[in-house]
Specification:
Number of helices: 17
CATH topology of the largest domain: Rossmann fold
Mean pLDDT: 91
Distance between the termini: 36 Å
Radius of gyration: 23 Å
Strand content: 5-15%
CATH architecture of the largest domain: 3-Layer(aba) Sandwich
CATH class of the largest domain: Alpha Beta
Helix content: 40-55%
Structural class: alpha/beta
């Protein structure tokens, strides 16, 4: 990968709600780009939730991120947005056509598309004022639509990072085909994600799909000496929702308990399933060995991993979980469902164990195999640390992203030539 050239102008990072506890992967990218000398601003469609902020960086970023919907409450900004749009009628008309041609069927979809069009108009003056030369969107969903429309309105090139699995499950709704066709490039966080993006795009645009993996700062994570590990501490980190499969993990805990294991489980995270999972814990008589620890910031997760013997990821679907990278960086092997992009991180017999999803028996067997074999856990942990150092270093992977973000000037006339393959 060649060294990136110095980028002249500003890059705007756009997402739906930022910053927040579940957006630490964006934090790392933002920090790394700024450390490389990139003039980078952040844009959030919805204002961040003060209760979901963690750590000094997120609190600082919440104070300077441009809040798109909040800007609609400032009459002066609205007037400026309308005035600027009307000064460029051809671009405005082209953007309106693009909004129409990428609108899914249905009255509600049409109303939402109109809102995204209005949001793009509100974003444009801010981009011009900040001398933005490139737009980059995370996730590709509604905020991706706003980014695409704002790019058309301002003639600024855009790119996006696709994470999954939600974006691929709703690809027609979010017109992923059109976004890929119009994007300067598309970063996919895994080979699995790239293959999914190929399913929903024309072959003529596959060359734009680049694998740019998420990463962590390996220096923040320390491996606990093997002699200090108890061989009984399991950790789950994630949002407590159905697709995370925590209910299957609790069933596996019950099986392990029935086998006479004294294994313990700490659950870090919160979400809509918390109360149901606590009831399940009580029904299985696991209260003495299962702890619901609530949400933790990056430092809190790092400390929880330092105390853990295994990370368990029983998900039904995933993109490429950053917590697995954090575990491997901590020398903690992983037992995980063999779904989506997970096998690119959890390599069977090399950095952990892969088991079928929604199978408590297989999950319990995988956990037990590693817990009873300290030398195997140590070998897997060391291999995991090496994998993260070589493939998931946040700074190194952000360099790859910056290589693709290059000046891509377009004339005013070019901005009217919206992609002909949009139907």
């Amino acid at each position: 990968m060649p060294e990136p050239q110095r980028f002249e102008g500003t890059v705007a990072m756009v997402t739906g709600r930022y910053p927040g506890l579940s957006q630490t992967f964006i934090d790392r990218e933002v920090r790394a780009l700024r450390e490389m000398g990139v003039d980078l601003i952040t844009v959030t469609v919805r204002s961040p939730d003060p209760q979901a902020l963690s750590g000094p960086f997120q609190h600082e970023e919440a104070g300077r991120v441009f809040r798109l919907l909040a800007s609609a409450k400032r009459p002066a900004h609205v007037i400026k947005a309308l005035t600027q749009a009307l000064r460029h009628p051809r671009r405005l008309a082209a953007t309106a056509r693009l909004a129409i041609h990428t609108c899914p069927a249905g009255a509600r979809a049409m109303a939402l598309q109109l809102a995204y069009f209005a949001e793009a108009m509100l974003l444009a003056p801010h981009l011009r004022a900040k001398n933005v030369k490139h737009l980059h969107n995370h996730l590709g969903d509604s905020s991706g639509t706003v980014t695409m429309l704002a790019a058309e309105l301002t003639s600024i090139p855009f790119s996006m990072t696709l994470h999954g699995p939600e974006i691929f499950q709703s690809a027609p709704r979010w017109r992923l085909d059109a976004k890929i066709a119009r994007a300067h490039f598309v970063a996919c966080i895994s080979e699995f994600g790239r293959q999914q993006a190929m399913r929903f795009s024309d072959e003529a645009h596959w060359h734009k799909l680049k694998v740019v993996r998420c990463g962590v700062n390996p220096g923040l994570y320390t491996a606990k000496p093997a002699a200090e590990r108890t061989g009984r501490d399991l950790l789950f980190v994630g949002r407590l929702e159905e697709r995370k499969g925590v209910n299957f993990l609790l069933d596996a805990m019950a099986l392990l308990k029935a086998r006479g294991s004294d294994v313990r489980l700490k659950i870090v995270g919160n979400g809509p399933q918390r109360e149901a999972l606590q009831r399940q814990t009580a029904a299985l008589s696991l209260q003495a060995v299962v702890t619901f620890a609530g949400t933790k910031d990056e430092a809190g997760v790092a400390e929880a991993l330092r105390q853990a013997d295994l990370l368990v990821v029983p998900s039904l679907s995933e993109g490429l979980p950053v917590v697995i990278m954090e575990a491997l960086a901590s020398g903690v092997p992983v037992v995980a469902s063999a779904v989506d992009g997970i096998p690119e991180l959890v390599r069977e017999g090399e950095t952990g164990r892969l088991v079928p999803p929604a199978d408590p028996q297989a999950l319990a067997d995988g956990i037990e195999q590693l817990l009873v074999d300290p030398s195997l856990r140590q070998r897997l942990g060391e291999a995991g640390r090496q994998l993260v150092a070589t493939e998931h270093d946040a700074h190194r992977n952000t360099v790859e992203l910056l290589v693709f973000i290059a000046p891509h000037e377009r004339s005013g006339d070019d901005s009217l030539n919206w992609a002909p393959d949009i139907q």
